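Example for reference:
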Amino acid sequence: MRIDTAAGSILCDPWVNPAYFASWFPFPDNSLLDWEALGQVDYLYVSHLHRDHFDAKHLRDFVSKDATVLLPEFPTSEMEDELRELGFTKFLKAPNEQVVELPGGLKIMIQALTSPTDGPIGDSSLWVEYDGVRLLNQNDARPTDLTVFAELGHVHAHLLQFSGAIWYPMVYELPQSAKTAFGKQKRDRQFDRTWRYIDDLKADHVFPIAGPPCFLDDELWQFNDIFGDEGNIFPDQSVFLSEYAKVGGTNGIVLLPGSVAEVTTSGATTTHPQPVEEFFANKKAHLEEMRERKRPIIEAEKASWRHPEVDVLDGMKRRIEPLLDESIYLAKGVGGPVRFDLVGYDGESVESIVVDFPGKEVRPYADEKVRYRFRTERALIEHLLHIEEVDWVNSLFLSCRFSAARIGQYNEFVYAFFKCLSEERLQYAEGWYDEHERAVDAEDITLNGWVVQRRCPHLKADLSRFGIVDGDQLTCQLHGWKFDLPSGRCLTSVGHKVRAHRVDAETPAPAGEALS
């Protein structure tokens, strides 16, 4: 998105090239726009380092290096470091949740989210005001509430995510009926979260952005939402409008590449390069045309992944074992061995490697029982080791080019660890968990006959707003996590017990240790 005002222009998250091992492409396709012109801007804002937002090649080739980067206040310097490597030299480091006035009367505020589960160590939202018109570009970010933005004045344009951006449940080795059921639950939760954010801000106009990627590789084609699957987690903008209408939404505006919306305090006027309804009615044809046009790009990327000179076991040992030695919270949170089944170039032979978190070592699989197992091509791991990738979530897992199986609940610490394969990231994540798991949340609220702690044990969402109690079960709608209230046990992941007791009970049930 590009924001143009009389006081300057801001280019936000320009993503054009495929991301995550050439699995994700922007849809609708924006690669044919005049990026030579669009990249001549005064300011650049990149919300976070996920590669469908931070497109290094496009930033290097098409965005003016005279642009001033509006930099979120993240806990590590990675974003600034990477942007400097691309040639950017001007940075405005925005203090978190503080309004900054730029020349000409343009005002901005950036809210940075900094938990280890917020993107690749951080996500953010951008608030902009010029001449009394206010805009919030929330994109992928999931703040616990939008109060900090609402307090700055009525917002006229609210841009936010509504679709899935994850690998669950598609990659799990489950019966199709289970995948459909889990996918429908997730799809519904995504929309519920979006409606809550929209209701919180009450902006004049809602723009569904950060929408679904499309999958153009034949191996991933089935992930596109064109088959009538109610469990597909990637609904598009046209589906958003129909679902939004069901809850009374009438102020949604869909943008195509090349669309221009002029927003004022009294309304919004939008022009499109082609009729929006007609475009989405022909979605499958557009995808098929894109697939053929992008096929050479996918094949070229695939040809670059193999590095037979890389000893995968030795490389994983050198990269991961020093971090296992330093890890306390993440290693304890994972709590057992994680197995990688690596399929060879022939498509049949398999090498199995175990990351043994309790034993603090990487070793060949020894026929033991594991609770987490990933199966992927050996070439992908070779490539990650070859380029010294520090974030396997922001590469392998988001690519969906793997399958997974697990025994028991989802374990967020598995994915937190594999996005922290550098000492800087690991130490930050360990410190974050140490600080937050030790903190005692003493404030309680009452929900449907239960007294519960006000903040969700997961990521501290305000349960007075996001909590729903049905019988003896609590659901936090921000991320869909569920808790059994009589025991306090989390039903979604290991750890994270909630403190709760019935209103008429004399004493509350103990919350217990978060990593037990």
In short: The CA atoms of residues 226 and 284 lie 7 Å apart. The first strand starts at residue 2 and ends at 5.
